[in-house]
Write a structure and sequence with these properties.
Elements: H1 2-30, H2 37-49, E1 53-65, E2 68-77, H3 79-84, H4 103-110
Antiparallel strand pairs: 1-2
């Protein structure tokens, strides 16, 4: 009979430990935990390597989920890129979504 009580308490401790771990992980995702510094450095290097980018002024990141990271980068583009944009509506924000091989079918179907 004493073993039943000990087993129940052990199960309770395991459940409590898992609950605390999950709460901590979900809390970090809810508040928008930033990406690791090495990922931010890699994004900055890739942006700086682009011929149309004059300089990278800032990179902000936020986890959207376990496997998704939002990247917001502020960079100066060559004047030719700015001149190609129609009007002032796109002057302040250009959104570039990276894709993988095979993604074009998804976007082609939407147009």
């Amino acid at each position: 009979m004493h073993w039943d009580a000990a087993a129940s308490m052990a199960i309770g401790v395991v459940l409590l430990t898992v609950a605390v771990f999950l709460a901590f992980e979900n809390h970090l995702l809810l508040i928008g935990e930033a990406a690791p510094a090495d990922m931010v450095a890699a994004v900055r290097e890739r942006l700086a390597a682009d011929a149309d980018v004059v300089s990278v002024l800032g990179v902000d990141t936020m986890h959207l989920g376990p496997d998704a990271v939002l990247v917001a980068a502020v960079r100066r583009l060559e004047d030719a890129v700015h001149d190609a944009l129609p009007g002032d509506t796109l002057r302040s924000m250009i959104v570039i979504e990276p894709g993988r091989a095979g993604d074009s079918e998804r976007f082609d179907a939407a147009t």
